[in-house]
Amino acid sequence: MTQQSEIFKKVISHAKEYGFIFPSSEIYDGLSAVYDYGQNGAVLKNNIRQYWWKAMVQLNENIVGIDASILMHPTTWKASGHVDAFNDPLIDNKDSKKRYRADVLVEDYVAKIDGKIEKEIVKASKRFGDAFDKEAFINTNTRVKDYQEKANAILKRLGKSLEAGNLEDVKALIEELEIACPESGSRNWTDVKQFNLMFGTKLGASADSAMDLYLRPETAQGIFVNFLNVQKSGRMKLPFGIAQTGKAFRNEIVARQFIFRMREFEQMEMQFFIQPGTQKEWYEKWKEKRLNWHLSLGMGSENYRFHDHEKLAHYADAASDIEFKFPFGFKELEGIHSRTDFDLKSHEEFAGKKLQYFDHEKNENYVPYVVETSIGLDRMFLAIFSNSLQEETLEDGSTRTVLKLPKILAPTKLAVFPLIKKDGLPEIAREIVSQLKWDMDVAYDEKDAVGRRYRRQDALGTPYCITVDHQTLEDQTVTLRERDSMKQERIAIDQLSDLLKEKLDVKHFLKQL
Q1: pLDDT tens digits, one per residue of 318-340
Q2: CB 454 within 8 A of CB 482
Q3: Residues 295, 387: Cα–Cα separation, whole Å
Q4: What is the per-residue pLDDT across 348-374, written as a single tens digit (0 to 9) for each?
Q5: Which of 107, 290, 346, 476 is the most buried (most CB within 10 A)?
């Protein structure tokens, strides 16, 4: 087992053990690629959602939020192109009988090349020490340059083949690269075929009169069909945005990598409506703004990179992904797309109704262009969770497992302990909890020795712990312990609220934007 897969295995195990994520319907042996968020996971997920909402809607006067329904008129998906073009290229291995996404097989091959580049960088870093110039090494080392050229050539060919619908060349590429089935090691492949990803359902009381519907495969169309409703009721002027979060559903045949690729997932999307001809400028602006949002959480700039699309979706004239370094390599976390006027014009055509904006300055009607930002909430959860989970060796040689979540996102912000369960210490601890729970999520814990309680809260990602001891009875102070540094200080009880509010104020994070 590789080091990366070992790390990922620990991430999945920790998520279940500490109440973050459970396999759905586990007592019935689960349901493939469907997961439930536990008591801590639900709070962390909601905190991520709220952090996005504050940055996207609350802090932008010209962006508003909606909550569109999951079920939409079926013509919506004909207009959007999903009925005809929402497909994945799939390939079967004849020996293992396993089905794979053909493009993912190739991308995984390229990821291994990226891994070789990373190994060369690590070796050079150790060899040159403080004098090591990473950028210069990447640009001048012959082996690294060869690896990069090979990877780029593969992805370029894959993109062109998929864009042209040349599935024969996709299979040829897999065969030329000698890509084997991950399970059987066999290279005995079928032809590549397209598979539509939408879930079908029905609306109606009887089979005879029921209408065929789809569970929405994305949340964006709910925004587009409500464009005029929002614009007119909110008296919005271009440029302006409409944001929403919500569930989407895709019948992923090759769902994998825990919550990275699921059949039921949640998106956080914003469609920014602009004047035609200004899309390149706004596309670059939103690329920068979205990357800054990610960096504000302090998970390291080296863990992010942009990947511009070789193959563009049918609606786009430019597209780029913000990729994050997951335990299984760099993968898409957020997409920024210049969608042109495709969606609104298509809905105009299929609905027979105008979806235009009247520009008072130009004294004319036109269909706005759109720049989209779309991030998977579940993927963001996985990025934060996997990046935060760390094993540390302490000065005394012992180890601790600590979940160094961004403090503003942690499910529990503070845990309060009485040193022992007598002498009035539990009563003081309970009173501190009752005072602080109005401002933050607070836990009370009196089980086991204090050291074990610290370790338990470290594993849960709790940023701060308070211990009430016998000195508290004398001077009304408590010990405040910080998760990451494990430093402790004495704080007066009446100063706790103001101090913790300052340390956990969302403004400190969002002001970096």
Answers
A1: 999 999 999 988 999 999 999 99
A2: no
A3: 13
A4: 999 999 999 999 989 999 999 999 999
A5: 290
